[in-house]
Amino acid sequence: MRIGEVSRRSGVSPRSLRYYEQLGLIASERESNGYRRYDQVAVERAIVIHMLFGMDFPREIVTSVLACTGDAPAEAHDALYAQLDRVRADLGERIETLVATRSRIDEFLAERASSAAA
Question: What CATH code is assigned to 1-55?
Answer without folding.
Answer: 1.10.1660.10
